[in-house]
């Protein structure tokens, strides 16, 4: 064997021995690493399992059943309060204003003297008229007495028949004069009475326009009186509601109830009123028609010129399906609710809201039946098919945490989120 091959065999032997030694030295570390990797994989799987179990845990929610009840149906509008009567008080005669007998904003009654004009001139005119009447009445009495005396004398020929005609005509003339005097006295008395300015209605006095001492005429405005008990509310509705309102108005014996609410719809301003008039024409510029309701307004909560929200009750739906308003969610395809299934999961159920029932409930037109359980609290954690835990009535599920919110945002970002509205 040559020197070359000996060297080659030695090199190969060294490489083999070195490789075997390296393998033996690193085998325990690789085993430990594999075991470590196997252990780590088991921990990850266990953690994933724990997270999945957490996601699959029942979601606590509050549920309430769908109930049937009689539901009043209202038409809503914006109305204006209008006084039953508005009267501007003007003097019937001229003269100096002596006194003002009311306070601005004060309630006055029909017949109350609210102002006084200087009566002296009119008192004198009335006294003259009365005196003239008495004078002519005395002349009439004398003429009647003369006629009676001459009636007995004419038969004996002591008085000519021509003179008797004169006596009779004199009596008739004086009777007419007395009648004219009576009329003049009554006219003077009316003028004298006009010096006392009286309230023509029950109402509330506004701001006065004159002061005592001013000389007023028949064109001078003393004050404006507003009658607010009872009072009107005028409002308008779209013309598509005309047929329903007219049918209800005629069939309801003219007793359609009307409620006047404050601008925030928080509470009624007065006892229930009733629809009084449906206007006889439609406004072509707005496509609406006017209506007028009357309220007793005992506490004067309705005021002239005030804007109020009006609810006109046109009918009552017997056996309407009612659910809490917070159960209704808004989705891309319309309104829906989470309906509780028999297996304690929830499903998205499309519904149609037919109207509001008070401040906290709505009437459902279709999509539900009586007794269906709907979720009213806790929808933020739900999606179709979610397992839920129904809480007792009155219990409220815990509010969403920051992690729940982040998780929900993450799902929405990955395109795997639910379409329900929180």
UniProtKB/TrEMBL annotation:
Residues 230-315 form the Multidrug resistance protein MdtA-like beta-barrel domain. Keywords: Cell inner membrane, Cell membrane, Membrane, Transport. The keyword Cell membrane applies. GO terms for molecular function: efflux transmembrane transporter activity. Residues 85-221 form the Multidrug resistance protein MdtA-like barrel-sandwich hybrid domain. It is found in: Cell membrane. Residues 126-195 form the Multidrug resistance protein MdtA-like alpha-helical hairpin domain. Gene3D superfamilies: 2.40.30.170, 2.40.420.20, 2.40.50.100, Helix hairpin bin (1.10.287.470). Residues 321-378 form the Multidrug resistance protein MdtA-like C-terminal permuted SH3 domain. One of its GO terms (cellular component) is efflux pump complex. It holds the Pfam family RND-MFP_C. It comes from the Bacteria. Residues 31-59, 385-422 are annotated as: Disordered. Belongs to the membrane fusion protein (MFP) (TC 8.A.1) family. This is Efflux RND transporter periplasmic adaptor subunit. It comes from Dyella psychrodurans.
